Amino acid sequence: MIKEEENIKEGKYIYGIVRSDSPMDYGMTGIGERQDRVYTVNYKDIGAIVSRSPVVKYQARRAELMAHEKVLEEAMKHYTILPVRFSTITESEDDSSIMKILERDYAKFYKLLESIKGKKELGVKVMALSEEVFYKYILEKNEDIRILKEKIQKIPSDKAHFHLMKIGEMVSVALKNEKEVIKNIILDKLAPLAEDFKVNDNYGDMMILNSAFLVKNEREEEFDTAVKELDAVYSDVLKFKYFGVLPPYNFVNLVINLEGA
Predict the structure, then answer these.
(1) Nearest to 72 by CA among 63, 85, 81, 60
(2) Distance (Å, rounded) from C-alpha 35 to C-alpha 29?
(3) Residues facing residue 121 across a β-bridge
(4) Could you tell me if 111 and 55 are in contact, meaning their C-beta atoms sit under 8 angstroms apart?
(5) How far is Cα 26 from Cα 23, in angstroms, rounded to an integer?
(6) d(CA 118, CA 76)
(7) 111-149 burial, b for 16+ CB within 10 Å, e for fewer?
(8) Could you tell me if 140 and 235 are in contact, meaning their C-beta atoms sit under 8 angstroms apart?
């Protein structure tokens, strides 16, 4: 009886593209349960970081995503890297398929590597310490809301319904406006220190900013200082989450064409 697993094709899982003219064995294992060895396949002065893998569609679960990212983070210690889209696998089990891709797309890879050379992605997420803290901050900054709130406290509860609705609407508008003001203050300070930046979607009502910055290595310390200064200014109201060196996911969306590889 032939096991189902024996019918699955073997291929090469591609993690990223690096600037390198010599093979490297990373001394680490790749995605999946088989613990396949991670290494580079080189063409001219670029290389692909790969490991053997069954040709399957990996689900974007925590374990698989972390295995993919761990390889990229290790490679970043040595090279400028272009992260490749998760679960990119050739349908050929030898390195010739990888060589074909590197040769065919050499000019594109080279140009992208040049565009991020000497730069790193840094992430900044900003959120309110709590809903209660931010609400109090809004009241302190908006006298009209505060006066109306004090006025309602003197009105019988059965007659205060309309005023409570009015306060709710005013607070909602004030929250939206203040979040935008703070976001722009932060971006005005950090964006000039970066080569590029991206604002991603917020998650949750209390998130102010979810952003990524592409920063030159020589400006990283200056960028660090700017984040610390902003954190100090808003420490009573906001919490800054500052993420160190990351693969440049927000600035390189590398989808490799596997056709013919």
Answers:
(1) 81
(2) 5
(3) 214, 246
(4) no
(5) 10
(6) 11
(7) ebbebbeebbbbbbbbbbeeeeebeebbeeebeebeeeb
(8) no
pLDDT at 148: 61
Q: Which of 261, 236, 208, 232 is nearest to 84 (CA)?
A: 261
Residues of the chain scoring pLDDT < 50: 1-5
Structural contact between residues 98 and 17, judged by C-beta atoms closer than 8 angstroms:
no
Tokens (6 digits) for 5: 């697993």
**Chain centroid, CA 199 distance in Å:** 10
Could you tell me which residues come within 8 angstroms of residue 46 by beta carbon, excluding any fewer than 6 positions away?
Answer: 17, 18, 19, 20, 21, 102, 106, 109, 110, 113
Q: Write down the residue that tokens 């989450």 correspond to.
A: 241
Q: CA-based Rg of the chain, rounded to a whole angstrom?
A: 25
- The predicted pLDDT at position 154 comes to 61
CA–CA distance, 222 with 48 (Å, rounded to integer): 33
Instruction: Give the span between the Cα atoms of 201 and 29, in whole angstroms.
Output: 33
Cα–Cα separations (whole angstroms), residue 34 to 14, 30, 41, 57, 138: 16, 8, 20, 15, 54
Predicted confidence at residue 4, as pLDDT, reads 44
Domains defined for the chain, CATH in brackets: 4-117 (no CATH), 120-246 (3.30.70)
Reference 229, options 124, 121, 119; nearest CA is 124
Q: What is the pTM of this model?
A: 0.81
**Of 72, 106, 107, which Cα lies nearest the Cα of 88?**
72
β-pair partners for 128: 238
Between CA 87 and CA 100 the distance in angstroms is: 19
